[in-house]
Amino acid sequence: MVRVIVDGIPVDVPAGSSALQACEAAGKEIPRFCFHERLSVAGNCRMCLVQVVRAPKPVASCGFPVAEGMQILTDTEVVRKARRAVMEFLLINHPLDCPICDQGGECDLQDQAYGYGSGISRYHEEKRAVTDKNLGPLVKTVMTRCIQCTRCVRFCTEVAGTPELGAVSRGENVEITTYVEKALTSELSGNLIDICPVGALTSKPGAFQARPWEMKKTDAIDVMDAVGTNIQIQARGGEVKRIVPRVNDDINEEWLSDKGRFSVDGLKRRRLDRPWVRVHGKLQAVSWQDAFVAIARRLNGVPGSRIGAIVGDLCEAESIMALRDLMLALGSPNLDCRQDGALYDTSSRSRYIFASGIAGIDEADALLVIGADPRHDAPVLNARIRKRYLAAGRSGFPIGVIGDVGADPTWACERLGDGPGALRDFVAGSHAFAEILKNAKKPMIIIGQEALAREDAADVQALCTQLAESVGAIAEGWNGLNVLHTAASRVAGLDLGFLPRPGGRSVRGMLSGGVDVLWLLGADEFPVHAIGPETFVIYQGHHGDAGAARADVILPGAAYTEKSGTWVNTEGRVQRGFQAVFPPGEAREDWRILRAVSEVLGHTLPYDTLEALRERLRLGNDAEAVQPDVPGGQSGLDARPFTSLTQGYYLTNPISRASPTMNECARVHAPHTAVAAE
């Protein structure tokens, strides 16, 4: 530690810290534009000037290392004059756009000009104008406002791993550009909006819709993937206008995927806002009571073994528990939360979660990725892998891949094969990379859904477990055998035992004529067309997607922004989101719908309030009663390579498919996956 005196206050900071960090440790506010805690130091803006005793002139504190006994002054007349001068230069070419700028109200330049500027301008010449750049459907540019802090350039290069932005020309002619005009390809490009300190980069889909101070802000959890990114939902007038990330260093740091941020416009399109019942082949709008009566009549006399339920990818734990309790009360053993047919080792919770924790990536010193594409499955987690890769250097963090991670996973890797055959060779010790894992202190293995949603998944997972034990990935104080989920509801479903009971059927068994009545709770990501015409389908959800199109009864539910709920992320972390707006029309929270229908069916669920249901969540787990998956050997391995389960990143759930913005992204980046959004 190094002792530094800041405005007469002694503080101890780690050796190698900057003067800016020392000032913040002393509780002093230092203005800055180019400096960002998660990016490299550039020293462009010079706004963070401070005075160091015996230094000939003010220094940029962001890049000035501290030394033992250094005395720093942050609020002298010299410092104030220097900051006013810097601010005057920054504002010379900045346009007077504040009344029409979307950054107004949360603009660093605006705030710091008020706090540290001079209040007058001596510049009367014409201002410089810069041509706007087309960065694609998500990020709007007004480059005349740019102050060349290069935060966006460093973010693209260092965090996103797609170095598509840079500076051209010199002096007063410097411009930030993509060199050759093209759309940004990163799945994290929306974070440029957050880190830009001025209004040069703003949201293109959300332009001119609301001011920050007009919106009600609610904490929630992103459900577009299984990372459990902490978000803030911002709504005005009963409509969600914007979703931004919250800081959580253990999960998402301060980043958010583009799908989680920009699919917000899908929340108000294709919505189910009233109950429907199919009469003579056509859906007709009915009252809640009529819908419940239609369900009760159809279930009358149907044995529990002929009733099934499937949980979708966006459901919260409360609705999963309520549906599980209702199905068990009806005597049904046919429950499944795995729309993709994935198989998991449920003998221990640590075998089906990201056991090391997402933050554990920072500790790993070797990585093997099996059947996963982290860049598209979990962009925020992929940024953590890239961060570890850059911190350790190419030789310090070797990464091997079995399967397809795309042309550019944003980190260098050794491609070791494309299917189970390569994994079997690994276990046999035929790969040199196996020695790298054995020699690592904390080796990590990530298994993706591409490896688990196969007929030989049990065998694949058995091989992965065998490999992890042989290379020391499972040891005292470290469990590096991680499952990377892609569905926000999956871990909660596994925890609550929403799986086939002894003698019960999985999704595939239910589709092949195994049930007469099928209850779909937001389930749209399985081959709905395979449901037989004789099966009575009840769809409970919030969007008119594939499941609703096949349904005989539709019960309108609430989206994740419209209810308080509990989600469990891929690492098994339990988190809670809160209601930001009300559901549209007659739609209701899913657990309330299930509680109401249970009364009509004569199997009233034993809770009337959300608090009582959450107490049931805490006490009512009987996952040990589920039917175990077939244990893996090695004789049933399929030679087929691990292949992606989705047709693209942007259109993976009902909300994103209803979003015009996500459809436009799919059209730009993957034209073969685009669908028409209303």
From TrEMBL:
<dbReference type="InterPro" id="IPR010228">
    <property type="entry name" value="NADH_UbQ_OxRdtase_Gsu"/>
</dbReference>
<keyword id="KW-0560">Oxidoreductase</keyword>
<keyword id="KW-0520">NAD</keyword>
<feature type="domain" description="4Fe-4S Mo/W bis-MGD-type">
    <location>
        <begin position="215"/>
        <end position="271"/>
    </location>
</feature>
<dbReference type="InterPro" id="IPR001041">
    <property type="entry name" value="2Fe-2S_ferredoxin-type"/>
</dbReference>
<keyword id="KW-1278">Translocase</keyword>
<dbReference type="Pfam" id="PF22151">
    <property type="entry name" value="Fer4_NDSU1"/>
</dbReference>
<keyword id="KW-0004">4Fe-4S</keyword>
<dbReference type="Pfam" id="PF10588">
    <property type="entry name" value="NADH-G_4Fe-4S_3"/>
</dbReference>
<dbReference type="InterPro" id="IPR050123">
    <property type="entry name" value="Prok_molybdopt-oxidoreductase"/>
</dbReference>
<dbReference type="InterPro" id="IPR006963">
    <property type="entry name" value="Mopterin_OxRdtase_4Fe-4S_dom"/>
</dbReference>
<dbReference type="GO" id="GO:0016491">
    <property type="term" value="F:oxidoreductase activity"/>
</dbReference>
<dbReference type="InterPro" id="IPR015405">
    <property type="entry name" value="NDUFS1-like_C"/>
</dbReference>
<dbReference type="InterPro" id="IPR000283">
    <property type="entry name" value="NADH_UbQ_OxRdtase_75kDa_su_CS"/>
</dbReference>
<protein>
    <recommendedName>
        <fullName>NADH-quinone oxidoreductase</fullName>
        <ecNumber>7.1.1.-</ecNumber>
    </recommendedName>
</protein>
<dbReference type="InterPro" id="IPR019574">
    <property type="entry name" value="NADH_UbQ_OxRdtase_Gsu_4Fe4S-bd"/>
</dbReference>
<dbReference type="InterPro" id="IPR036010">
    <property type="entry name" value="2Fe-2S_ferredoxin-like_sf"/>
</dbReference>
<dbReference type="Pfam" id="PF13510">
    <property type="entry name" value="Fer2_4"/>
</dbReference>
<dbReference type="InterPro" id="IPR006656">
    <property type="entry name" value="Mopterin_OxRdtase"/>
</dbReference>
<keyword id="KW-0479">Metal-binding</keyword>
<dbReference type="Pfam" id="PF22117">
    <property type="entry name" value="Fer4_Nqo3"/>
</dbReference>
<feature type="domain" description="2Fe-2S ferredoxin-type">
    <location>
        <begin position="1"/>
        <end position="78"/>
    </location>
</feature>
<comment type="function">
    <text>NDH-1 shuttles electrons from NADH, via FMN and iron-sulfur (Fe-S) centers, to quinones in the respiratory chain. Couples the redox reaction to proton translocation (for every two electrons transferred, four hydrogen ions are translocated across the cytoplasmic membrane), and thus conserves the redox energy in a proton gradient.</text>
</comment>
<keyword id="KW-0001">2Fe-2S</keyword>
<keyword id="KW-0874">Quinone</keyword>
<comment type="similarity">
    <text>Belongs to the complex I 75 kDa subunit family.</text>
</comment>
<dbReference type="Pfam" id="PF09326">
    <property type="entry name" value="NADH_dhqG_C"/>
</dbReference>
<dbReference type="InterPro" id="IPR054351">
    <property type="entry name" value="NADH_UbQ_OxRdtase_ferredoxin"/>
</dbReference>
<feature type="domain" description="4Fe-4S His(Cys)3-ligated-type">
    <location>
        <begin position="78"/>
        <end position="117"/>
    </location>
</feature>
<keyword id="KW-0411">Iron-sulfur</keyword>
<dbReference type="Pfam" id="PF00384">
    <property type="entry name" value="Molybdopterin"/>
</dbReference>
<keyword id="KW-0408">Iron</keyword>
